[in-house]
Amino acid sequence: MGIIANMTKPEAVGIAERIMAYLSGEGIEFVLEEELAKALDRPGGGVPLQFMRADLLVIVGGDGTILRACLDLPDDAPPIMAVNVGERGFLTTVEPSEVEEALRAFFEGRVEVEERMRLEARIGNTVLPKALNEVCLTSKVPAKLFKARVRKNGADMCWVEGDGLLVATPAGSTAYSLSCGGPVVDPGLRCLLLTPICPVRPSWPFVLPPDAQIEVEVVKAREPVAVVDGQAVFELEVGSVVSIRASERPLRFVGLRARFYEKLARRGSGPHA
Fold it and tell me: What is the pLDDT of residues 92-111, one digit of tens each?
């Protein structure tokens, strides 16, 4: 078992301690991410996330914590149980009150397993971290035009002129893409979303099949960048081509039950929002 927590939230650290107590009581071995180990005064007991080998990773925090952690995970990452200590928690799978029950269900093989597609992206020979939510192509300079040519499978598809372009996964459809007018996509689907950010002329989001090979060529921009999951920033230049496709290595999330539409209703699409 591997345990990761958002160190800026005392509640997250407290839940991590609850998890440790439960596992100790059950005689189950666990390892802590190195920053959590330092905070809990366990010198020598921490392991960097990218080197953590476990049957289950428990991430305690909000969506930002999950996205940051997932950037460092290898392709053969174990299942993830994400405990919600955030405001929205779209990526989380377990509520704080359910932690012990969810762990028990995992060990008894009674959890729901959901595969979440990721994106592979590269800039020339530079391979970017896999994206769980989206790759955002934009300008570091606010309110400056970002213009790009988009190709699908080598053929011209569209032009983008505005604040930028999002290439998102179904999991990312309820994040930045949704705020930009993109569609909500059921997380059980495999597809790519292309959502323009504040286009200067009428433009539509696209939903593409999972075998689509997308190339985005930067035509005009001031200090263009590619941002992976709002965390990792990579500088571009005019003429840069960013290639993006669906990864064949999804991440597996586990919880007591599927909650996608329940969370969507809380966000504002339901009658009681």
Answer: 999 999 999 999 999 999 99
